[in-house]
Amino acid sequence: MKGQPNLIGTICLWNISDKGTKAEIGFELLPEFHGKGTMQEVIPIIINYGFETMGLNFIDGEVDPKNLRSIKLMEKYGFVFNMRLKDMVIYSLRNPNGKKF
């Protein structure tokens, strides 16, 4: 958050595919900062960086199916359900070729 000098969470693109066409988004935020719009501010920046700068075709997000807040947040930015693993679900976002988030 602006004016906040301490680390309140993280967000990154990681687990980048060998061909550099796909990556996973990962984010976490300290509980006392939930619901303040922080991730809504930074997720679009990370998505745009992944698609425009890195040239990714897909960004995936792996999340616990009980973490409805994170699922709703990803859905807000166009991520759609892709598959269910044993204890996780994968949501994916395809590069819309020029759409800004």
Structure description:
The chain has helices spanning 38-53, 68-76; strands at 9-14, 22-29, 58-63, 80-84, 89-94. It is of the alpha+beta class and 101 residues long. It has a single domain (9-94), classed as Aminopeptidase (3-Layer(aba) Sandwich). The model has no long low-confidence stretch (mean pLDDT 91).
Provide the descriptors you would attach to this structure in a database record.
101 residues; alpha+beta; Aminopeptidase; five-stranded mixed β-sheet; 2 helices; globular
Main structural class:
alpha+beta
Q: Any idea of the CATH class?
A: Alpha Beta
CATH A-level architecture: 3-Layer(aba) Sandwich
The main sheet orders its strands as 1-2-3-5-4
Overall morphology: globular
Distance between the termini: 19 Å
Can you tell me the residue ranges where pLDDT is under 50 for at least 5 consecutive residues?
A: none
Order of helices and strands: EEHEHEE
| Tally of alpha and pi helices | 2
In angstroms, what is the radius of gyration?
14 Å
Q: How many domain modules?
A: 1
Total strand segments: 5
Mean pLDDT: 91
CATH topology term: Aminopeptidase
- Helix amount, in percent? 10-25%
Please indicate the percent range of residues in DSSP E strands (runs of 2 or more): 25-35%
Taking the sheet with the most strands, its summary is: 5 strands, mixed
Q: Write the CATH homologous superfamily.
A: Gcn5-related N-acetyltransferase (GNAT)
